[in-house]
Amino acid sequence: MAGHAHALAVLAALRSDDAADDRDLAMFRQAIAEHELMEDVSRVPWTLTRYGLVLAMRGQLDEAETICARARAAVARLNAPRSKEFALSACAEIELARGKVQVSRALVTQLLTTAKNANDKVMLETALLQQTRFAVAGRGWPQARELLATLIPTAAAENNIADEALAQAWLARCAHGMHDPSPRDHALARARELRRRIGFHADAFQVDLALAQLRGEMGDRDAAVTALQTLANDADRRQWMASALEARLAAFQLLQRSHDPVALTRRSQIETAAHSHGFKWVLARLDAKPNTAIADVPH
Questions:
Q1: Which candidate, 261, 251, 237, places its Cα nearest to that of 282?
Q2: H or E segment at 96?
Q3: Of the candidates 210, 82, 97, 1, which has an alpha carbon nearest to the alpha carbon of residue 9?
Q4: Which region, left, alpha or beta, applies to residue 99 given φ > 0 means left and ψ of -120 to 50 means alpha?
Q5: How far is CA 81 from the centre of its chain?
Q6: Which residue from 242, 278, 240, 243 is spatially nearest to 24, judged by alpha carbons?
Q7: By the 8 A CB rule, do 168 and 190 touch?
Q8: In this predicted model, what pLDDT tens digit does every residue of 94-137 receive, in sequence order?
Q9: Is the pTM of this model over 0.85?
């Protein structure tokens, strides 16, 4: 039964890359119950963290946070650095979505320390990716670029195509923001080449989002806004509420910077959806000024 439970959890995770539907959640819950029945404690953390991430993607953040706490409690009973690292990474994402920026940063710092101590290059790369996300969100291009100087070769060495593609897209945005066209064009070409080799929809979404943002920042605003709206609509279809909000937020930011009156309507729609589901990280960025750190949202 232990093998069946793990296979069920893996299947649910793979299915959620296409659409995070109710059946996937039921499969995760069944897998967790079977793990616990068999006292298969080594696999409980992975299943819990994957379940929590899917809940968060769907906008069920309260439940996701509860599952995250269960995952960390399960990890505490094990001597398993990779399980601890994965739980820290997932919980950092969930806490960030809820607007608990300082909590998320602290978890990423723990992840970085744990990964270094375990000499785990895969999770070190994950920690660097999450650190870079903070800098990119605040348009802190010099800091992001410094992190990317380590992240990109690390991802390339691990042959992590999706992470390297996202990192290259971010590097292109950094270089553009710092008025450095040659590195921008090189990174953009590399990101596009890697994007064609990505197999998972969720990974491709992140790269497409960054590339659309860059397109708008380079002056092709209308095409970028259209691309972002297409991404949001596709995410809606897959029940990826978190991703849909990210795409709509990016489109709003492009409209806002060009003083388009449509931005006010878009802002209201995003604010309503984010408030309804507790996406306070989205709310924090609606009013954030460029090149500033984004603090916790009041709860």
A1: 251
A2: helix 81-97
A3: 1
A4: left
A5: 22
A6: 240
A7: yes
A8: 999 999 999 999 999 999 998 888 888 888 999 999 999 999 99
A9: yes
